[in-house]
Amino acid sequence: MTTIQADEQKTEDLKALAEQAGRDLEDASALEILQWAAETFGKRFCVTSSMEDAVVAHLASRAMPGVDVVFLDTGYHFPETIGTRDAVEAVMDVNVITLTPRQTVAEQDAEYGPKLHDRNPDLCCAMRKVRPLEEGLTKYDAWATGLRRDESPTRANTPVVGWDEKRQKVKISPIARWTQDDVDAYVTEHGVLTNPLLMDGYASVGCAPCTRRVLEGEDARAGRWAGRAKTECGLHE
């Protein structure tokens, strides 16, 4: 078997594994799902975190102490988000890995003009989020996210374990079936770190230029790219 054939076979095996696990683990607890991921992938597994809260990172650290937690530093984060990352790194049994774009904000401004996020948010996200994540995930076979089905209509069908066709990796969403009440209860029970902005009217925390507080009755994602048709940064599309 050639190297290319071996890689193709591995991809097919991972895809089949993901699809089967999605069915088998649909009713499993978040911790059980992450224990399965740790046992199945070991060091080829990581957690990604926007540092909105550290719930999935905390869960993963219970299943796999020292687990890699990947954070995308876009250069546009609120200071509170960077502070949450630093606190997570200091107090939790995880290995925080910070990924950065190829260009600084200043370099991007010089090439594309200031405030690209206002003129072409899709391109900005592609360069500052999507590309760094794809490059950062190359050494992993599986990654975990904090996606929940109740966050927005676009996430309503999120599987607890699925296949990330774009990146050819197993994508795990251990708290997909959780509600915000479940998240709040876990945070309270375990004293999990959360971004201070969640106590200041922000229901979802992204880059500062593209995030606002939500209004009463809006869904949690309404404060992201408000006034635009855009609802996702591209990481989960």
From TrEMBL:
GO MF annotation terms: 4 iron, 4 sulfur cluster binding; adenylyl-sulfate reductase (thioredoxin) activity; metal ion binding; phosphoadenylyl-sulfate reductase (thioredoxin) activity
Top-level taxon in the UniProt lineage: Bacteria
Binding residues annotated for [4Fe-4S] cluster, in chain numbering: 124-125, 207, 210
Subcellular location: Cytoplasm
InterPro entries: PAPS/APS_Rdtase (IPR004511), PAPS_reduct_dom (IPR002500), Rossmann-like_a/b/a_fold (IPR014729)
Cofactor remark: Binds 1 [4Fe-4S] cluster per subunit.
Keywords, in A-Z order: Cytoplasm, Iron, Iron-sulfur, Metal-binding, Oxidoreductase
Reaction equation(s) it catalyzes: [thioredoxin]-disulfide + sulfite + AMP + 2 H(+) = adenosine 5'-phosphosulfate + [thioredoxin]-dithiol
GO cellular component terms listed in the entry, alphabetical order: cytoplasm
KW Metal-binding (keyword) present: yes
Pfam families reported for this sequence: PAPS_reduct
EC number: 1.8.4.10
Pathway, per record: Sulfur metabolism; hydrogen sulfide biosynthesis; sulfite from sulfate
GO biological process: hydrogen sulfide biosynthetic process; sulfate assimilation, phosphoadenylyl sulfate reduction by phosphoadenylyl-sulfate reductase (thioredoxin)
Active site feature: 233
Free-text function comment from the UniProt entry: Catalyzes the formation of sulfite from adenosine 5'-phosphosulfate (APS) using thioredoxin as an electron donor.
Family: Belongs to the PAPS reductase family. CysH subfamily.
PANTHER family: PHOSPHOADENOSINE PHOSPHOSULFATE REDUCTASE
Protein's name according to its UniProt entry: Adenosine 5'-phosphosulfate reductase
Organism annotation: Streptomyces himalayensis subsp. aureolus
